[in-house]
Amino acid sequence: MRTTTSNLFCFMISTIFCPLLSVLAAPAAAIDPDTQVHIPWDWSGIIGTGQSLAVGEQGQPVLSRTQPHHNLRLSSGHRPWPIDPNDTNLILVPLVEPIGRPSTNYPSSWPDNIAGETPHSSMANQITALVRATSGRDFVSVHSEVGENGQCMIYLKKNAEHVGVNGRSFEAAMIEAKAITRLARAAGKTYGVGAIIVTHGECDAGNRNYEGDLYQLWSDYNNDLQAVTGQKQKVQMIVSQQNSCNDYSASTLAQWKVGVDYPAVIVCSGPKYQYPSAEGVHLTANGYRQLGEKYGQVYYERVILGKDWRPLEPTSLERKGAVITVHFNVPVPPLVWDTRFAEPHQSITAWQNGKGFEVSTASGEKATITSVTIAGDAVVITCASDPGPDARVGYAMTGGKSRMAAPFEGTYRWGLLRDSDPFVGAATTLAQPNYCVAFELPVP
């Protein structure tokens, strides 16, 4: 009884007094009551899945220890797997980090799967801050994280084989969704799931079928969640690229391409090479918060405002002899070269002047890039000689021996192209321009 009373008191403090203070502190001039926001439920669910970066590996110490709004998570207490979603001891508590029970072993899985700061708290608080600042309305999200550290897609998908503790992820998401649906009804609230965030891909770096796997994962989540919550709205999938594993990663390309091929329901939020890393693969706690802020911005644009937000990505390209021009979707012009990072590809002589761009001939030989320049919404790549028909242009796809310079060390693949988005994260107060996705395309 003592624990229950304490949780209730903390919940009241977090959900009544903190939001009141944040509303009073918000600049009234920023609120536009005519902003058309789409908020179909009292509580909007967001489910995270993936591997180590999804569960906050190396994200210690956690930073998001207070909940400034009304955002929530499910607490499973100390109950062991399997957990009954109808267990009356399951309760909703303010969303803070760690979002769930700590992982005590490797491998691990829900409900004991969290390693540190995840993107969830910063994502939730970012969405609420944006909704409040532009419309004056509140936004409450309920977050779940069912990722399994180090595990490939075969353990995240529906009907995954159980090997030891792994293979629970999809089932765990449904347990949480059923429990939250029940608790929402008991509280007189409506509930539906707005998005799945996928922070994954390192394990599947060599998986050539990864795009199909991602779409199947979206389809299964969408169908099963609609059956659980009764919602008609399709679930949005937001995927970020992995940029740290393998010299060439099929999953990285698929994480961008799946949003191109299924634009209504899946979107790539962009790469992660711009975020500070703990040790070369995983992010720092603040890096996870920045990722969460970007997820929050994308959710706000696509799900709340209903806009067709796209990342900084190529849309077309053309070749005239030795000159290749790549046109881009630029979320917020103009395009610029980032000056914080070390020059990429310094161990690959042919591409040392490419600022992340790569050109290969039809036979796979690296074509020497002499210069790259920005021209409006395009980047003009000049090669030492005509790469010929069936050449390929890539960006941040091929690894080198040297990594990004400190303090941004943490990837073998990165580039310098970004837009001029003025967006600043609510938690970190750091600028969050959009960095170009890693890609590879054939040249006409």
Provide structural commentary.
It is globular, with a radius of gyration of 22 Å. It has 444 residues and is of the alpha/beta class. The chain folds into two domains: 35-304, SGNH hydrolase (Rossmann fold); 313-442, no CATH class. A hairpin with a 2-residue loop joins strand 14 and strand 15 (378-383). It contains six helices and 18 strands.
Question: What structural keywords apply?
Answer:
single chain; 2 domains; 7-stranded mixed sheet; 4-stranded antiparallel sheet; disordered N terminus
> In order across it, which strands form the biggest sheet?
3-2-6-1-7-8-9
Shape: globular
CATH homology superfamily of the largest domain: SGNH hydrolase
Q: Pick out the low-confidence regions.
A: 1-29
End-to-end Cα distance? 70 Å
The fraction of residues assigned to DSSP E strands is 15-25%
Radius of gyration: 22 Å
Number of domains: 2
* Biggest pleated-sheet summary: 7 strands, mixed
Order of helices and strands: HEEEEEHEHEHEHEHEEEEEEEEE
The CATH architecture assignment of the largest domain turns out to be: 3-Layer(aba) Sandwich
Mean pLDDT: 92
- Summing up helix and strand content along with how strands pair, one would put the structural category as alpha/beta
Task: Give the CATH class of the largest domain.
Answer: Alpha Beta
DSSP summary: helix tally: 6
In percent, how helical is the residue content? Answer: 10-25%
CATH topological fold name of the largest domain: Rossmann fold
Write down how many β-strands occur, each being a DSSP E stretch of 2 or more residues. Answer: 18
